[in-house]
Amino acid sequence: MKAIVLLSGGLDSSTTLAVAKKQGYELYALTFRYGQRHQWEIEAAGRIAGHFQVTEHRIFDVDLSRFGGSALTADIEVPKDRDLEEIPRDIPITYVPARNTIFLSLALAWAEVLGARDIFIGVNALDYSGYPDCRPEFIEAFERTADLGTRAGVEGKKIKIHTPLIHLNKAQIIKKGLELGVDFSLTSTCYDPSFKGEACGKCDACLLRLKGFAEAGIRDPGKYRT
């Protein structure tokens, strides 16, 4: 069985890749260079893909910085040192408009070409940054769209969008990843890393990652500036 796995190089997507491998899928990893300021994650994705010996790893260019509208794709300051309880309450400026809709659409296109009927994405609705395209409702709606808008779907070969982490918190994700052989020192989570790839330790992504490792009682092997 072939599966497309959206691989950003971060903690969640790396664990998702490991879950798909454990389930016996032939892995096709898809990473996007979308004009993000944290392009260091693309190198991390390559390391993770190599670690799990995927069948193919493609890096797809789709420059969302031409639209902007996000601190990740435009000259907008990345929020730092926010209260952890505040993070999921609103949609932050790090939200990239329609990002997961675009990524899943492209994954769907590749799946049709490969004859794959399974797509894995590491969205999470518990310890997350308040993004609307990480919710179960969105995934369910996209799955219905895939069935209606593809030849595979019309012919009864339904596409399944797998979200194995959607109801787990970060500590649970970290423990699952370690059980499945994820080397978290290879991953990159930070929204605003240094040119050497060192994490800032202060953006929402870093704070949620650090919280997860602390709650799991495990030392974070990632590299931080301080």
Walkthrough of the structure:
The protein is of the alpha/beta class and 226 residues long. The protein has a single domain, classed as HUPs (Rossmann fold, 3-Layer(aba) Sandwich), CATH 3.40.50. The protein is 36% helix and 11% strand. The protein contains seven helices and five strands; from the N terminus they run E-H-E-H-E-H-E-H-H-E-H-H. A five-stranded parallel sheet has the order 3-2-1-4-5, with helices on both faces. Strand 2, helix 2 and strand 3 form a beta-alpha-beta unit. Helix 1 packs across helix 6 and helix 6 crosses helix 7. The model has no long low-confidence stretch (mean pLDDT 94).
Please give the structural blueprint.
Layout (H helix, E strand, L loop, with lengths): L1 E5 L4 H12 L3 E8 L6 H12 L4 E6 L37 H16 L3 E3 L15 H14 L1 H4 L5 E3 L7 H10 L24 H13 L10
Parallel strand pairs: 1-2, 1-4, 2-3, 4-5
Helix pairs in contact: 1-6, 6-7
